[in-house]
Specification:
This protein is mainly alpha-helical. The protein has one domain (15-252). 65% of the residues lie in helices and 7% in strands. The protein has 9 helices and 6 strands, in the order ββαααααββααββαα. The protein is globular.
């Protein structure tokens, strides 16, 4: 399927599917986080408040990461750096930006970072599942040529729809995280650990099929980060098991 990525135009204004999907992912993610946060004693205003910190930081981090690892192109076309509607967002950069903003928010507002992170992780996975379809409409983030029956016709050939693979993986991860989040009281940080390990595991294998990987020397950067992400997930789990507090403690503290 060929697409120019344009959803509609209003006079001089051109609205692209990429932007619609990213905005939709953010709005749906906030709604889901507010719903799940309420179960853990977090008021909706706090979810919206942290969203005002985390979402812009995620967008900025995703763009900076992509630009840095595509610097040969952007150094020659500096005017393209701010044009995120043309595509070019790296989820790992977005995650780094969001986590740093979340930590800063927790420190300044005196809110429990681990609890807020756990509540946010299903929304992050769902947002990724939705956002990957922006890659489809932009005809990017696809895989090598293949004759498999579910191949999609992209850029002149039938290819692995890697954006579809990741969207399905992320949706499944979202459901797993929701189930885990709503189990009986457990250590805070466990859902974040499961997300870090689960997303990184799927991305490690899917990345090997892509044709447009950001590179770090001879290595696919996303695979390097995925290995680190799995290690971080295990480390968070072990640390929180030995040192973290459980949700029962937080509810006694009346998180608000």
């Amino acid at each position: 399927m060929n697409t120019n990525g344009i959803a509609f135009t209003l006079g001089p204004l051109t609205v692209k599917w990429y932007g619609i999907l990213i905005a939709s992912a953010m709005a749906i993610g906030l709604f889901l986080a507010a719903r799940e946060g309420k179960k853990k004693g977090i008021v909706s205003d706090d979810i919206l408040d942290v969203g005002l910190w985390v979402l812009p930081a995620a967008v900025i981090g995703a763009r900076i990461y992509y630009v840095l690892f595509s610097w040969d192109y952007y150094s020659a076309h500096p005017g393209e750096i701010i044009k995120i509607w043309h595509g070019g967002m790296a989820i790992h950069g977005g995650l780094i930006g969001a986590i740093l903003a979340g930590i800063l928010y927790g420190k300044l507002k005196k809110k429990p970072f681990w609890l807020f992170a756990d509540v946010a992780m299903p929304s992050v996975a769902l947002g990724q599942a939705i956002g990957r379809w922006g890659n489809f409409f932009n005809q990017e983030a696809y895989g090598y040529e293949t004759d498999l029956p579910w191949a999609m016709y992209i850029d002149g050939a039938y290819r692995h729809p890697t954006f579809l693979y990741e969207s399905i993986w992320d949706l499944g991860l979202c459901l797993l995280l929701l189930w885990y989040l709503n189990r009986p009281p457990q250590r805070q940080g466990y859902v974040l650990a499961l997300y870090a390990f689960g997303y990184s595991l799927g991305r490690f294998f899917i990345e090997q099929l892509r044709t447009d990987s950001l590179m770090f020397g001879p290595f696919r950067m996303a695979m390097v980060i995925s290995v680190a992400g799995m290690a971080v997930g295990v480390a968070i789990f072990l640390w929180q098991r030995n040192h973290g507090k459980d949700y029962a403690y937080l509810l006694k503290e009346k998180v608000k």
